[in-house]
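Listing S7. Sequence submitted for prediction.
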Amino acid sequence: MGRQSQTDPAQTAGLLDFTQRWAECCGRRRISIDLVDAVTDARMAQKEYLQAKLTQFLREDRIQLWKPPYTDENKEVGLALKDLAKKYSDKLECCENEVEKIMEEIRCKAIERGTGNEHYKTTGIATIEVFLPPRVRKDRKNRLETRLHITGRELRSKIAETFGFQESYIKIVINKKQLQLGRTLEEQGVTHNVKAMVLELKQSEEDTRKNVQVEEDEQNEAKLKEKRIQRTKRGLEILAERAEMVVDPETTPYLDIANQTGRSIRMPPSERKALVLAMGYHEKGRAFLKRKEYGIALPCLLDADRYFCECCPELLDTVDNYAVLQLDIVWCYFRLGQLECLDDAEKKLNLAQKCFKNCYGENHQRLVHIKGNCGKEKILFLRLYLLQGIRNYLSGNGEVACDYLSKAHQLFKELYIDPTKVDNLLQLGFTAQEARLGLRACDGNVDHAAAHITNRREELAQIRKEEKEKKRRRLENINSLKGMGYSTHAARQALHQASGNLDEALKILVSNPQMWWLNDSDPQTNNCQESPSQESINQLVYMGFEAVAAEAALRVFRGNVQLAAQTLAHNGGSLPPDLQFSAEDSSSTPSTSPSDSAAASSASTDEDMETEAVNEILEDIPEHEEDYLDSTLEDEEILIAEYLCYVENIKSATKKN
């Protein structure tokens, strides 16, 4: 299971893929709560815009609010601030009192920051700007003083105590990375004036009491979520390890990497493991995003980003996985209400745009060449333009925001699907996801979409059949080499070098007997004995080899007569120099320890836990290879309308007293 684009730029336009494997009525009370939340969100967004715009004006006019005449010697506000507020409110055509209030906040924060800088220089005590969860509507940004030699666990404890959280139910994200509890802040690159975002895995007790629908088991919600995160990590590690092994696909789930057509990709083992982990964490993060569990999704997405960075740069430049991940990370920060915490949001969005261009080609011509259309991929650009519009609005760039939001709105109109057309395809036996993807690929034509979906189903079925046969042959070849005495690892490496040709792989192994020593955990190929049997020695002597050479070869190959004979024959009756070592250097049969029975008794428990962790990962890996391109666009529709309204209000705003 898996999917990646090939390294040939002409063939890279698809996402790397894995090919494996509260909904209730809204009463009046719920609707009224949503309306209040919407009004609150609108006010916060408009305030952020004003704050960004005023900061921009102050920078352009080179005004320093923490100095006279705006601040007196006692650090109190000066009368000149009111005149400045009037000037800027006239310029923005908005309420003078609101402008003055925001400018006073900017002035106070500048003074506070300056005081903190001086304090840090003299005492070494750093200030961290703490961003609290969205439910904390008041004073979401707070400052916390700390020394940088403390551990991440100590900082988490301090944040929990200061702001009223339960310590084990929060995670801290700094510099787009989860805070590691066992390392010091200095070791993790935490500096003075850094931003720290708090992710809450559980609501406060007060909020829990307010929620009349809460169930008793929600008291353990955070613990369950933390366990899910740990199971995710373990499950992906197991699947990544299996990617390096040879397993029977009929009995053992594993992850494979394939291109946009569904065909497996050959790549170096080290890169494959990093890519499996990166894509696995990304898929798990996307699953949490779909369930709107943003607090759990973000750590998974950040882990995916870390593993993608371990892949070769050429890969990241030629596939769209990394670009989609950047969009998902920015989207997650936005949905958490912490977009200002992501200092490089613009950089991530620009990186995504550049990657899409490299991958799809100018005007998507490479994408059209490979897939025949680009209708489905337009949804990625809609999300990109929407996020660019929101980020620019919150940064005070109203005109730029309007341009991006207008582009997003135009794409939305192109991608909107008539529900009756989806119903028509459902009646033909297709899924809703297939219907949406097919209609977008065929510009809304139902007949063409039905043919497109059917053809794709047939293509994938054929590809899966071919891939299954390739895996079966590879497993047979490996078992054949194992039957000759070679380890699984040696057999895999030889077949890899021989491009799957069994005869060539055998020649490679015979010419390189040291490959027999490649690490392998297969107990069937690790039969060790202190000294070879006389019967084995006699067999080699009967073949014409000297008794001394026969015994030495059998010691090297731990009694395997076939390997010893092949090596001696290939090297003129003696061992090659690099395998000539004394008997005491060879391995001996490990004795059975008293703890063997105890280890065996716990093995089944560990195996059950691993199976549970793996199955939980596989459940969240979508069946459809283009799942990442499917969306009802309900959230996007609301946000486009909301932020277009904000930018229109900028143009038509009038003074209010």
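Caption to Listing S7: primary sequence and predicted structure tokens for the chain studied. The mean pLDDT is 77. The beta strands are 126-131, 141-146, 170-174, 177-178, 195-200.
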